[in-house]
Amino acid sequence: MDTDPENTPPAPALPPMYVGVDPRLHFSGFVKAGNGASGTVFFANRVPAPHLPVALKRVSPSTKAKSKALENEIRTMHVLRHPNIVQCHEAYSYDGSVWIVMEAMDVGCLTHVLDFLRAKAYLLSEDHIAYILRETLLGLWTMHSHSRMHRDIKSDNILVSSDGEIKLADFEYTAVLTEDTPKRNTVVGTAWWMAPETVRNSYYDYGADVWSIGILSVECAEWVPPLFGMESNKAMEVIRSGATIQGFKRPDMWSVEFADFVRGCLTRDRALRYTVPDLLRHPFLDKACTKTQIANVFRAVRGMNPIESNE
Questions:
Q1: Which of the four pLDDT bands, split at 50, 70 and 90, describes residue 69?
Q2: 308/311 Cα distance (integer angstroms)
Q3: Three-state DSSP class for 10?
Q4: Which of 27, 58, 111, 113 is most buried, by the most CB atoms less than 10 A from its CB?
Q5: How many CB atoms lie within 10 A of CB 200?
Q6: Residue 311's pLDDT band (cuts 50, 70, 90)
Q7: Do 51 and 138 reside in the same domain of the chain?
Q8: Average pLDDT score, the chain
């Protein structure tokens, strides 16, 4: 797998946009996959043959700001071509809605996997967690290498498939950093995953995404992020003040390597916090399982038979 962002092929700024065309004329077998804060996602198949599966996200922006955020999301998916970033094929503008056509990830978001495991009281093992985090970080490093922050990393925004693919998605809050604007100070994201500097309305950069990776790590280990039982405003106040140290509820259950990985992400001092390259070199990721092994975890969520491993 080529993970060098410099080797990704150039792409047009935006994918094809078909205005006034009903996407239901070009796709069939629509199945609702879920509702999100920004829209509704469906699985469907292209027509005519070979009926390739896709995901379609229907969004109805109600303000200019939301339309701009939608364009930003489409642009990010289309420009950043990487195996760990969901790709946008095309878009349709029809009857007040925009339909974004993306590659299909048949299991859905990582949250579905964690909810499934939580219901059965099963925990992911460290080798499974290491695989998930490594693949997520490879996508995130491509974003950072192209001067983009995600700003909303969480299990809802990581899509997985029954063949073990893991991809970053939902780029509504993505921000581009430049020489003139090397940091941002807008409070955006989802409360429980936000970095202290983001919650404080201070200037922040790529380190805010790294903090979210730390929270995601705990979420993978314990099904939900720290502070999840709190209302969002209360959680943000705790993050802002540092009154509660975020981390594992049962640190004795996890290895020294995993504990250090999480500690390096959740360091409140941005200057001392790990970077994405630091994390990609971290020995914890050496524990990552094979693609087949993680695929069989994801396939269990869909009730699919496991893949026989030849690895």
A1: confident
A2: 9
A3: coil
A4: 113
A5: 16
A6: low
A7: no
A8: 92
Task: Using DSSP bridges, classify how beta strands 40-46 and 27-35 pair: parallel, antiparallel or unpaired.
Answer: antiparallel
CATH at 205: 1.10.510.10
What 3-state DSSP class applies to 258?
helix
- Please answer whether residues 24 and 30 qualify as being in contact, where contact means their C-beta atoms are separated by less than 8 angstroms: yes
Question: How far apart, in whole angstroms, are the C-alpha atoms of residue 254 and residue 238?
Answer: 24
Which tokens sit at 216? 């995601």
Cβ-contact 305, 299 below 8 angstroms: yes
Q: Give the position of tokens 């916090």.
A: 273
Catalytic residue IDs: 152
What gap in Å lies between CA 42 and CA 97, rounded to an integer?
Answer: 14
pLDDT of residue 3: 44
169 and 232, same domain (yes or no): yes
Q: Structure pTM?
A: 0.92
Task: Determine if residue 95 is left, alpha or beta; phi over 0 gives left, psi from -120 to 50 gives alpha, anything else beta.
Answer: left
Q: Nearest 5 degrees, angle CA 247-CA 252-CA 255?
A: 85
Which residues does 145 contact at the CB level (< 8 Å), separation at least 6?
5, 6
Segments forming the whole domain that contains residue 136: 108-301
Share of the chain above pLDDT 70, in %: 95
On whether both 272 and 143 belong to a single domain, the answer is yes
Is the model's pLDDT at 171 over the cut of 60? Answer: yes
* pLDDT greater at residue 72 or residue 260: 260
Residue type for 92, please?
Y
Residues 66 and 144 in one domain: no
- Can you spell out the DSSP letters for 58-99? EE---SHHHHHHHHHHHHHHHH---TTBPPEEEEEEETTEEE
Number of domains in the chain: 2
Q: What is the pLDDT of residues 229-257, one digit of tens each?
A: 999 999 999 999 987 778 999 999 999 99
Q: Are residues 217 and 198 in the same domain?
A: yes
Closest among 99, 84, 89, 88 to 38, alpha carbons compared = 99
Judged against a pLDDT cut of 70, whether residue 310 lies above it is answered with no
